[in-house]
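Hi R.,

Here's the chain you asked about this morning:
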Amino acid sequence: MPQNLLTQYAIHRLPIRTPFPIGRINCYFVEAPVPTLIDVPPRGASFLGELQAGLKNLGYTLRDVKRIIVTHPHIDHFGSASTIAGQSEAEVWVCREGAGWLEHYEASLVEEERFSRDFLMNAAVPAAWVEQTTSGFFRLAREVAQSVKPSRYLIEGDEVLLGSALFKFVAVPGHTPWCMMICNERDRIAFTGDFLLKEVSSNALCQGPHAAPQGYKSLKTYLTSLRKVKEMDLRLALPGHGDVIEQPSERIEELLAFIDKRKGLMHDILSKGAQTPFQIMNQLFPELPESELFLAISEIMGHLEVLEEEGFVKRCGEKPLCFSADAQPL
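And the predicted structure, written out as tokens:
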């Protein structure tokens, strides 16, 4: 069934290497009626070379691409958009609220680096860890993406013709505040970006006040999006990384159960005494690779925000942050 649908819509999945732990990104090329790439790899000759080779196998070149749709403004999904658009004059489409990341990438990166350092320090991560992690990541980030001017600013409900059918843009914030799915309601098929992945849970990344809507809570928002998409009863999800998902609703149920279990584990840890996010991290992920430090602290903070709102934990310190158990979950 998956291949039949992909053939019907002339959709081609092109997995391209990235320099990040997540591994390859899925770039989807849709031939008609307008040659379209859904997400593009990071900037760099080797990454673009792989994309060019994939297109060549289909009888196309980068110059044939006339539209780039970005599911969310992360560098492994838009990094080379400026280079490709410069060669082909392709339009670049992205969620309106997240467009600033593409338009002002270099300036946004300065703010993001400042936020990341403060965020990790306030979680009680040792200063040496913070310096090593952030300096390495942001050095790479400056190399693999650059600003690009979007041509169209998307909002939920906008439509695009892919193949012979209309696809609708659906807001699914959580991984970022600006994630969008591209969904055909008739055949219940959707490009899900990083909102829904088959093999790993999508990180609900904490966002700085310079970027996120006021009061934004990443995991709480992601849970709302998961439940929203579960009600859509999709047949096929085309994710930003990894294999296609043939039973998206079952995958969502797995994620909801995983998140609920993780909340319970964190409450158990805090029941033994007040702890910082970094102390919690060391118990949940004792052998965490350095490259995943921000992801881990984001996950922990997202769970703590949900538990705090539900009345199961309370803050007992602000600088650095510290939490303790406040009630027993039902």
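The chain has eleven helices and 13 strands.

Let me know if you need anything else.
M.
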